[in-house]
UniProtKB/TrEMBL annotation:
<keyword id="KW-0479">Metal-binding</keyword>
<keyword id="KW-0539">Nucleus</keyword>
<comment type="similarity">
    <text>Belongs to the ROX family.</text>
</comment>
<keyword id="KW-0560">Oxidoreductase</keyword>
<keyword id="KW-0223">Dioxygenase</keyword>
<dbReference type="InterPro" id="IPR003347">
    <property type="entry name" value="JmjC_dom"/>
</dbReference>
<dbReference type="Pfam" id="PF08007">
    <property type="entry name" value="JmjC_2"/>
</dbReference>
<comment type="function">
    <text>Oxygenase that can act as both a histone lysine demethylase and a ribosomal histidine hydroxylase.</text>
</comment>
<feature type="domain" description="JmjC">
    <location>
        <begin position="192"/>
        <end position="347"/>
    </location>
</feature>
<dbReference type="InterPro" id="IPR039994">
    <property type="entry name" value="NO66-like"/>
</dbReference>
<protein>
    <recommendedName>
        <fullName>Bifunctional lysine-specific demethylase and histidyl-hydroxylase</fullName>
        <ecNumber>1.14.11.-</ecNumber>
    </recommendedName>
</protein>
<keyword id="KW-0804">Transcription</keyword>
<keyword id="KW-0805">Transcription regulation</keyword>
<keyword id="KW-0408">Iron</keyword>
Amino acid sequence: MLLGNPLIFIPERKLCISNITINNLAESIFRLSSSVNQFAPLPSLLVKRRIFGLSEDSFETFMLRDWEVSPFIVRRPSTSLVEDDIFSSFTKSLNYKESSYSFISSMLQSFISCLPIGSDELDILNFLEEVRNELGCPIIYQQDLRVLRTEKQSKREMHFFPENLDPCCIMTPNFFSIDDIMKCEEACKEGYTIAIRGMEFRFASIAAVADTLASLFGQPSVGANMYVTPPNSQGLACHCDDHCVFVCQLFGNKQWTVFSQPNYQLPRLYDPLDSQQYLDGENSFSVCRKFFLREGDVLYVPRGFAHEACTYDSASGELARFSVHITFGIEVEPLFEWAGFAHVALQRWNQNKKKPDPASVEPSSGLFNVITVNLLHAMIELIGASDPTFRKACLVGALSLPLDRRDWLYCNQKTIFNYLINKINLESWFLEALRMVEVAIEKKDLFQGMRWLHLLNNERETIQGHGWNTPLMEIENLFPAYIQHQDLAEAAFMQIKTKFCDEVSFEDVVDSYKMLFEKYKKARKQYVNGMLSLHCN
């Protein structure tokens, strides 16, 4: 299954009597292994020392000074021990030589496609149901790998396999054949970079590093891409990412240029990323920092910072060395931004506050509560569009339970939470929220990005026929009655906003947030386990 092209050879590769296809076999392997750890965890201290520096407080210093703020480089001391290197087993498995690209074809032949799992998919069985006919298929161009270079004059990216970019075939996967794989060595000799996505799904040693980094940053998962770049060439053109990256130089050298950030607002994952607004900003190219990475060095590039990288080697011919580096991407899902934590806080407070007695309230009070709480959700989105703190990564998932109030991370996260609540209290206005909800109802896209909130609704209590935990999409039916009593509605909005900001507790929210975090982490871990078992590395 792994060494051939299953789509081409399926008729000849039916299992003798049982008539089981490769897809059936791949699904069975995936199911059996998804809940069994496929890699040994790494000590967090070992990863911290390798990525962030040798001093005991290097990680804390980085988080408080550089995280999502500025580029940062860690030079690996020449005296550091090879046996302590978290990448040593991976680099040994590649078995690359100074001037040979032969390891690329042997590596790619063992790969199958890592089909994408939905960002909000929390049931691995649903994922398997959707992809069961494609599981075990060959790697797909653009999805799993790219072979490209940037022309020096035009600064435009050129692909070695341009036929795989035909827009007419966008609905048809561009499967990479054995012949294509064998051509990759030729591509490297012509100056093309091999860019491979999803290395954490293909090598257990890389998965272990990615998993530890995810835990350190309080995220369900971390992605890993690998880049092989020939001497004196450039792979990707200047660009910026919607996620932070840690560049780990494994072999050879590479020159990086990171430009200043013209936009103070961090780009958000899954939002359309208009790279030009980050590349064309005022003085964006007048201020830059250059970093020359040698083997063992690590470079951090925050999301939204334009960057490019080239290999330079004064040697010629067989003496010139190529570059190999892996980037670990900290992809922050909307739920795990601070805006997401604020939404969880509001939902948690609304569920836990004392419910009014149905016999002693006005018939419309339940309706007012339902709409008002969701108007506050709208205000969180509005404030977050102008305040960059709301888009920063929330690291509460990295906190250990029970909470240690002396821990620097706990103090840091609670300080940010208090800032958000104060911001919501001072800048939440009834008419602005009302207009936002009206527009969203007209566009039929009311809070589509917050569908995950329903996971917090464990109870379905009702007040005068209106659900206390009414789903966001049901607001449309209640909204006209709310508008008819706008004066009363505004008074209810101000009252509930004040009560929420006065009563909400950081410690109470952590439990609900961690519950969601663990659900997302479990699904991602199952996916990693299943994919690693199919790669047998």
